[in-house]
Structures are given as structure tokens and as C-alpha cells.
Known about the structure:
Layout: E1 4-12, E2 18-27, E3 32-36, H1 43-51, E4 58-63, E5 66-70, E6 75-76, E7 84-87, H2 99-109, H3 114-127, H4 143-156, E8 161-165, H5 173-190, E9 193-198, H6 201-207, E10 210-215, E11 218-223, H7 225-230, H8 235-240, E12 247-250, H9 258-268, E13 276-281, E14 287-290, E15 299-311, E16 316-322, E17 325-331, E18 342-348, E19 352-356, E20 361-364
Parallel strand pairs: 3-9, 3-10, 7-8, 8-9
Antiparallel strand pairs: 1-2, 1-4, 4-5, 5-6, 10-11, 12-13, 13-19, 14-18, 15-16, 15-18, 16-17, 19-20
The chain binds adenosine-5'-triphosphate.
Domain ABC transporter: 4-241
Pfam family, one: ABC_tran
InterPro entries: AAA+_ATPase (IPR003593), ABC_transporter-like_ATP-bd (IPR003439), ABC_transporter-like_CS (IPR017871), ABC_transpr_MalK/UgpC-like (IPR047641), Mo/tungstate-bd_C_term_dom (IPR008995), P-loop_NTPase (IPR027417), Transp-assoc_OB_typ2 (IPR013611)
Amino acid sequence: MPTITLSGVVKNYAGGHAAVKDLDLTVPDGSFTCLLGPSGCGKTTTLRMIAGLEQPTLGEITVGDRVLDSVERGVYVPPEKRDMGLVFQNYALWPHLTVRGNTEFGLRMRKVPAARRVARAKEALEKVRVADCMDRYPSQLSGGQQQRVALARMLAVDPGVLLLDEPLSNLDARLRLEMRTELKRIHDETGATIVFVTHDQMEAMTMATHIAVMCDGELQQVAPPMEMYRRPANRFVAEFVGSPPMNIVPAGEPAMSDLGGALLRYAGKRGELGEPGCVGIRPEALRLAGAGEAAPDPAWSEEAVVETVLPTGASWTVQLRVLDTRMFAITHEDPGAGPGDALRCWAPAQCLHLFGADGTRIGAWDEASAPVGGVAS
Ligand SMILES: Nc1ncnc2c1ncn2[C@@H]1O[C@H](COP(=O)(O)OP(=O)(O)OP(=O)(O)O)[C@@H](O)[C@H]1O
């Protein structure tokens, strides 16, 4: 299986709009890499360039040692010669072909002999668990089944690289969850290199082996999901990955908050801070105790007032006012408090993330003051 490398890739659409700016990205061999970011950040454009459906304005794309695009060297390999399978949001199944016909389609185009074609299609449909729908037409299938057929059609031709553009976004919440599990299983079974575009951080967190976060055409960070979650390279990643998002407390001029000041005083006792712009605390890192109870030492703690309690069944999301700042806490024990009640909230030092005035991660307070997590450049 090949490693995909994008080097200095730029895409300017007609009219000068810079959709992708100087992108250096490595998609490791056999990885499940999610391109994650808000609408319009350049994810689809990046995927389409890997597929060969768009040509870069500048830069180079290689798979293994094969150059697929090089503006400088005048190389462009068309999509059908890239050995990549594509699935888009709208599945694009042929309505006049049965499930079997749709799944065999790519094999027919490649002139695979009939007996092999039938066997490969059956195997692919079994892999995505819709083999019992073989003789139905797409209109006779549910959305989830159609999505599986689209995947089977791609798997049948056994491409080295699978490119998926928001393939689950048309499914309801339950099917989406089911398909995430299926995709993860298929990835484990086939070992294929998968590039998956999504704006849903939960989708990326649950499926990916690597997440590449983009913002406004620029790569922000590439890392395995939990590493990104624990050590976001900058404030944008910290707020984009996680739900509810990380609490961000202004702790630098001109927007210094009272809580920011209190956090810095606590942090200052623990070492050199650099020049912080804000402090981040994940909701699940913000612990709750009764108003009169002391927080463990050493930990930062502060009095808080409950604004809202949102039970979700498995946990409680508690909205708090801490000095002048609103924060979210997630707790797996009933907080036993309601709006207006006083609590004490606290967080261990290693759960306080420090970001510089430009948003770049400085570190957490139990780490060396050197930046960690690395912003990709
Ligand atoms: N064919 C095009 N011509 C001109 N501009 C385009 C074209 N395709 C995309 N863009 C612009 O390029 C930017 C990046 O678009 P892209 O579709 O890659 O983003 P995205 O992150 O995939 O967004 P979404 O999640 O909404 O699909 C956007 O500002 C978009 O309007």
C-alpha cells in the first residue's frame, strides 16, 4: 500500500480564490486519515486533487515513488490511472442497475472476466453486509444500504487508496454510527489507505488513525486522534476537536478576564509561562465539588455558580459561571445541584492548556515550557 505525499500544494480557483495554501501533508501507508475542518476550509479540494479531479496550481503529489502531479515537472496522471476508489456524499449509484450490476460496474469497465467479476462483486457485497440485496434496485434500498453498495462498488475493484468525501452525511444518526463501525472494520480487514473528508469532529475522532485539521486552506495539525485531543497544536484545533468544545479563558491583554488572571496567578507559581493569550480547560477536566469542600492539592480551584444542568443519560453537562467567565463541565456523577447553586470547581494542573497570544500552544503546566504537538508548516 502506498504513502501519499502532498508537497507545497496550492490550489487557486479561477478568480484568484486560494482554496488550499502551501499544503505539506503525508498520508501514511495503510492509515485512515481524516481531513477535518469547517465548511470551505479546502478539504474537498484537497481530496479532489489527490483523486486527480482537480490539478494543483503549484506543488507535487506522489503515491509511493510515483509522481501523480507535478506542476514544476509538467506531470499530471488522470484519475482513472491513479488506482484510487472514490465515494461521494450522494453515492451516485446507477438507478437502472441492480445492486449486483452497480457493484460489477467498475470491474466491467476494467474488462475483468465474468466469473471473476461475479465472485469479486459477491465478496465485496458480503464485506459490507448487503449481499442479500443483490437483485434489488437502488430505489428499493435504505440510505444506509445504498451507502454500503457505493462502498462495495469501490471495494470490488480493490484500489490501493480509498477516497471518501463526507459519505455518511446523508444518513440519520443511528445509521451514521453503524457505518462508522463498518468503515473501521473494513479498514482493519483490508488494510487500505483511506482518506476521509468530514467536518464532523466526532466522526474523525472515532474512525481515524490520523486527523489532519484544516482551516482557511491551511493545515493546522496532523496527529493521531487522542494525541490531537490531548495536545492541540493551537487554539483553533483545541476548540474544533471536542464537544462541548474546550473552555477558553482569555488570559492576555487586552481581553484579560478575572478568571484568566486567577489561572495565571495559580500557573505562575508553577513555572515560566511565556506570554499566554488564553488558558483552555476541557469540560471533562473541570471537576465539581460541594461549595464548602476543598479541592485536592495541588490543583487550581475556584468558587462557581451553576447556570444550567443538562443530563444526557450517561453524563451531565453543567454550565457554570466562574468569576466573570461561563464554562462547561461534564461529569459522570449527578452534580446534585441546580441553577443558582454554589459549587467549587477545580482542575489538575496538567489539564490547563496554555496558548500564546497568536493561539499557538505553549503547553500544559506539568510539561516543559517548550511547545508540543507541532504546528505543521
Ligand atoms: N470549482 C470552484 N471554483 C471556485 N471556488 C471553489 C470551487 N470549489 C471550491 N471553491 C472554493 O474553495 C474553497 C474550499 O472549498 P472546498 O469545497 O474544498 O471546502 P470544504 O472544506 O470541502 O467545504 P465543505 O465542507 O463545505 O464541502 C471554498 O471557499 C469554496 O467556495
